[in-house]
Structures are given as C-alpha cells and as structure tokens.
Design goal:
The complex is a heterodimer of chains A (338) and B (126).
Chain A (H helix, E strand, L loop, with lengths): L24 E5 L2 E5 L16 E5 L2 H9 L6 E3 L2 E5 L5 E5 L3 E5 L5 E6 L5 H19 L5 E2 L1 E5 L2 E6 L6 H10 L3 E4 L2 E2 L1 E4 L2 E4 L5 E4 L1 H7 L7 E2 L7 E4 L10 E9 L10 E4 L2 H10 L9 H17 L2 E5 L7 H19 L1
Parallel strand pairs in A: 2-3, 3-8, 11-19, 19-21
Antiparallel strand pairs in A: 1-2, 4-5, 5-6, 6-7, 7-8, 9-13, 10-11, 10-12, 14-15, 15-19, 16-18, 17-18, 20-21
Chain B lengths: L6 E6 L5 E4 L1 H8 L10 E4 L3 E6 L2 E6 L4 E5 L1 H11 L4 H11 L4 H17 L3 E4 L1
Helix pairs in contact in B: 1-4
The chains are: A alpha+beta (338), B alpha+beta (126).
Chain lengths: 338, 126
C-alpha cells in the first residue's frame, strides 16, 4: 500500500472548508481550549468557558493591509517570513501556502490561505509553530518534544529535528503504546505532578517509516512541498487523550559509530538544563519577561524530571529493541519508587 | 594539584551552539584590559538571573538572551560574586577552599572575571 497524500484546496467545496457563516467549533489541545472557524481533525468539545485561543479567517485584502503596515521587511527563516508588528502582534507568512497574525495577547490567530495546501499541512503549522506564539504570549513554555505513554506514564524524546523522535514514537505505536504528542509539548502541574498534555492526534513520519511501523494506517498527507514527510492521523486507541505524568525524558543524539547496543546515561542537571533550553519550541519571542519565565520553567523541569541520553545503533532494525528496553526501564523505575 | 577556573559559554536562544572558552584562549585577548585591584568590589549585574544546578551554575543574560553555564569552581566564584565581595576576598576564599597554586588562581580568576564582565554579567567597582 503506498503511503501518499493529495493536495486539497481548503476552499474547495469537495474538501474541508471554512464555514461561510462564521460558525465556530470548540476543541481542546495541549490542555487549552480553542474556538475555530475552520474544522480541525479531531473531536470537538461542547461550548463552555471562553476559549483560550480563537482561530478566525481573514481575507487576502486584510493580510495585504497588514503587510503594508509592517514596520520592517521581516526575517526569513528558511521558507517562512516572520515580522513583529508595532502593536506586538506577530505576522507569519509561508509563501504560496498560508499566513497568520497572532494577536499581541496571544488570544487570537487570524489565518489566510494562499493556495494549494493539504488540510493536514495547514493544521500542522497552525497547531504547532503558529500556536506556539499564542501559547508563549499567554505565559506557557512549549517544548520541542515527542512524547509516548506507557502504562499511563509519559516518556519524552528530546533532540534536534531529524534525530528520530517521531520514528522512535512510531516504534512505540507499533508495540501497542500510545502517543501523547508529536513535535510540541506543554508541561503543566496537575495534582502536584508535572504532566504532559495531549497534542493533536497525528504523527509526522517519512513514508518508509510509516509503512514499516503503521502499515494498516491511512496514507498520510504531505507535510509541505519541501519534504517527503507525511502527516499521519492516529486512531483513537493510539492517542493518549488525558494529561500524563512525565516520568522522564531521553535525549536522542547522533550515535557514535561504534554504538552496538542500547545505552542510557543519566545527565547532570546542567546538561539536562542545556537540553531543555535547546528544545525551546519558540525562539522568536525573547523579551525579558519570557526569558525569565522560561529560565524558571527549565530550572523546575531539571529538578523534577530525570533526563538521560539515549544511545543506540542508528538502524531501523533495532528500534523495537530500543522501545522494549525503554519500556522495561520505565516499569523498573516505577517499581523501585513504589 | 592545579585546577583551572573556566567557564562554559552557551549560545543564545536563537543560536543554541555550545562553545567553551578556555582561560588560555582568552587570556591574551582580555588580559590587561580590565583594571582590578584587591579592593575592587565585584557584583552581578541587574540584567541576569541564575540558579544553582547541583553544584554547577546556569546564568541567563536578560539583555541579550544568552545562556551561560559554570562548572562547580566557576559556580563557587559566582556565588561569591553574588555576595558582592572584593577581589581579594574572592581570591582568598577560593585559595582556602581549593588546592590550587596562588599565582595560577589569580590569573584564572582575572580571566574568568574579564569574561563575565565582557558578557555583561558582572560589574567591577574600584
């Protein structure tokens, strides 16, 4: 079965579309409530308290006016442009794909659609990169991490993009465990414990990884035109939908050439601190208040959540052994504590 | 046994690269620039936050978003800096607490303090 996606014009009547009457739907992700004028690919929630963040559609003309008022040309990061507006809003622009304005208080995100884009790709960036601006502005500290859940306890994977976090998570799915979140993690205190909160029910994988570990899943859609990575929607049983206590983190690094078996090395607090700082999800908002808040958050995480370096031979064939070793390790650690 | 007092420079939140500045590398560039007497009072600037991490120290410069790490000896120095001690008090305290050659310590201390001043983490009052 080939794992491919197809582009769907978000305004195509045959595909997902923005509701022309401006109706909103309510969702919960990362532990925050979202009110959205565009349907998202996970279950809705009944309306309740005012949303933490609203997603509202804005026309091309509105965005053209926004761009004209920008105080500078903006900075380009690879393939998107970022600009800070005079009122403290943030303008994010992916050429020919989509654009966003995050309000200065982080409670509103205006989105615009520029051309052919899959709904999955749009949501990936909306619920990751763009939402991170809103979350930081509201005082949260998102981390770049992928998290799996074993027996109700969360294990986070840290490491640079391309170092195998999602691939390892796919191996956990293959073993019957669940994913809490892929790519962005929010940690908050619940009942005296630091817990990870569920992200969107999807995982980003290269086609060969998806074929190997999720052979029965629906084909994913391309993440963006520049990569072969696919956005694969997860089934209900594959997703942990409640906050899960963070039992630990492992850092995935490039393995030494002579790595022959799975190794776990505890990190000192300062090395763990460094890894959390390196895993900062949003590095654009660097005001004094945010930096102080992040500093304190990282200090708390290093105090309360163990971090270890994971080394293993970098071949797909060993990933299930890596998974099994981590599962045994998690279960042993909990037995020692109890 | 001689111990070196050196620091680890961590990149900013935008550029998270890890660089280590050895006291040897910086001595030539910074030696002689900073005026430091025994009575000079050393203090942390207002634009930084720090924490102790099991003996190491992490510091964040709030003005430029650059993070720093100090090993246990550097962290001990940092604790003395936070208490606004004079150069002589800091030097003599470290001399008493560590097995280190006095001349080497003096040189290492001047170098690390110069780095900390250059990074905007420490100020020196005559």
């Amino acid at each position: 079965m080939s794992v491919t996606g197809h582009a769907v014009n978000l305004l195509d009547p045959s595909g997902i579309r923005v509701n022309p009457r401006g109706e909103v739907r309510n969702y919960r992700v990362y532990g925050i409530s979202i009110s959205s004028e565009i349907p998202l690919s996970f279950p809705t929630e009944p309306p309740g308290c005012p949303a933490d963040v609203t997603f509202r559609f804005a026309s091309r003309e509105w965005f053209t006016d926004v761009a004209a008022r920008l105080s500078s040309e903006g900075t380009t990061n690879g393939w998107y442009t970022y600009s800070r507006m005079r009122d403290g809003s943030e303008f994010l622009h992916w050429p020919d794909l989509f654009e966003f304005v995050v309000s200065s208080d982080g409670r509103s995100v205006a989105f615009g659609l520029l051309g052919q884009s899959t709904a999955e790709s749009f949501q990936t960036y909306l619920l990751g990169h763009v939402l991170s601006f809103a979350l930081v502005k509201q005082g949260y500290e998102p981390l770049h991490a992928t998290v799996v859940v074993v027996d109700g306890h969360a294990l986070g994977f840290l490491g640079r993009s391309g170092h195998g976090k999602s691939t390892l998570a796919a191996a956990f799915l293959h073993g019957g465990h669940q994913v809490l979140t892929d790519d962005m993690l929010l940690i908050r205190e619940v009942g005296g414990r630091l817990c990870g909160f569920p992200g969107p029910p999807r995982i980003k994988l290269f086609p060969d990884i998806a074929r190997r570990f999720l052979p029965s899943m629906k084909p994913g859609a391309p993440m963006n035109p520049e990569t072969d990575k696919l956005v694969v929607s997860l089934a209900r049983r594959q997703v942990h939908t409640e906050p899960a206590p963070m039992q630990g983190f492992v850092v995935l690094d490039e393995a030494p050439e002579d790595a022959s078996h799975v190794q776990l090395h505890p990190l000192s607090r300062i090395d763990a601190w460094l890894e959390f700082v390196k895993a900062t999800f949003n590095t654009r908002l660097v005001g004094v208040e945010r930096l102080q808040r992040q500093f304190l958050a990282v200090e708390e995480w290093t105090t309360r959540i163990p971090v270890r370096r994971l080394i293993y031979p970098r071949t797909l064939a060993v990933l299930e052994s890596v998974r099994d070793a981590l599962v045994v390790d998690m279960r042993s650690a909990r037995q020692l504590v109890s | 046994m001689t111990r070196r007092v050196d620091g680890i420079l961590v990149g900013s939140s935008d550029h998270l690269a890890l660089n280590k500045l050895s006291s040897v590398d910086t001595m030539g560039a910074l030696g002689g620039v900073m005026q430091l007497s025994d009575q000079s009072r050393i203090a942390g600037t207002a634009d930084q936050v720090s924490c102790n991490l099991d003996g190491d120290a992490a510091i964040l410069n709030l003005k430029n978003g650059v993070y720093y790490g100090l090993n246990p000896v550097g962290a001990r120095l940092w604790a003395l800096v936070q208490a606004s001690r004079t150069f002589a008090e800091i030097r003599d305290t470290l001399l008493a607490e560590y097995e280190v050659d006095a001349t080497q310590l003096d040189a290492d201390l001047r170098t690390l303090l110069a780095q900390l001043v250059e990074q905007g983490l420490v100020e020196i009052k005559a």
